[in-house]
Write a structure and sequence with these properties.
301 residues; alpha/beta; 10 strands; 9 helices
């Protein structure tokens, strides 16, 4: 993985590892890959397909014009900072500590990616924090405001995490690019799956970016993965939703510098869904076969 330009990661984990130490759980390996490849920016587009609106618990009126991207800082914060430990006191009382630490360098680089992506879209960036109670968030907001002077064409707004969690469900169309720290991003990006109707629909890209973000002109080292879990209870049943994995592959093509391939895959997926050929978990069949057929048809054009 360290020697590759791109890594496709399937979902890992399951109940069989619940009782083992974290250091040898599959999830530990994911964190290690992210850290060693310096994949500090996680990009999760939220895609809503009109013909699948019935899958979402949200009303059709709320789902209109939803097209947003969530950027999650991926190599800092609670998941990586030290100290991180548990212990028992002499009075036999158990304690646990996780540390949330960010430097201004870590904050600036993820925010800069957010500003650049917002500049290429609808020019609106929503920065999410808890600056009312957390010192790391106060620094986050300060750095965001300082960077905003370099991006006067981008509208910057700040939302507290709890408010963002509510707004994301009640008015998702109001947002374009959302950027936040690791833990908040983990929660919000999974919550955003409710908008589309299924975790099985959403792809992600985790990238290492030296400076700036010009996706049309540059390629990036990255890891690409569907954001759903491993679902070991349906292993071998042939009913896992492949859409998020397919779209993660299309994101890989984008950031490796092959936008035409990305477009072919995305159009093949859209055509398949428009023809009402959907995945087994949504009541359909032969989805992957039809996507492959549509990809091959586009390649021959």
């Amino acid at each position: 993985a360290l020697e590759s330009e791109a890594v496709i990661l399937g979902a890992v984990g399951g109940p069989k590892w619940d009782s083992v130490d974290f250091e040898i759980r599959p999830e530990s390996a994911i964190l290690s890959i992210r850290k060693k490849l310096d994949l500090f920016v996680n990009i999760r587009p939220v895609i809503v397909y009109d013909c699948l609106n019935a899958m979402s618990p949200l009303k059709d009126t709320i789902l209109k014009n939803v097209e947003l991207v969530i950027l999650r800082e991926l190599t800092g914060g609670l998941y990586f900072s030290e100290p991180k430990k548990r212990w028992v006191t002499q009075e036999n009382i158990r304690y646990g500590v996780d540390t949330l630490e960010y430097s201004e360098v870590e904050i600036e680089r993820i925010l800069r990616v957010g500003f650049e992506i917002a500049r290429s879209r609808r020019k609106k960036l929503t920065s999410v924090d808890k600056a009312n109670v957390m010192e790391s968030s106060k620094l986050w907001r300060q750095v965001a405001n300082e960077l905003a002077s370099e991006y006067k064409d981008v509208q910057l707004e700040h939302l507290y995490m709890d408010n963002m969690a509510m707004q994301l469900i009640t008015n998702p169309a109001n947002y374009d690019v959302i950027v936040t720290e690791n833990t908040f991003g983990d929660i919000l990006s999974d919550e955003a799956a409710v908008i589309s109707g299924s975790l099985g629909l959403l792809p992600s890209a985790s990238l290492s970016i030296d400076s700036g973000f010009k996706s049309k002109n540059m390629t990036y080292k990255g890891l690409y993965e569907p954001i759903h879990g491993s679902a070991p209870d349906i292993t071998g049943a042939g009913i896992a939703n492949p859409l998020a994995a397919i779209l993660s592959g299309s994101m890989m093509a984008t950031y490796l510098g092959y936008p035409k391939i990305e477009s072919i895959i995305r159009e093949a997926v859209q055509k398949t869904i428009n023809e009402n050929i959907i995945t087994k978990d949504m009541g359909g069949n032969n989805f992957t076969d039809e996507v492959i057929n549509n990809v091959e048809s586009n390649l021959m054009i």
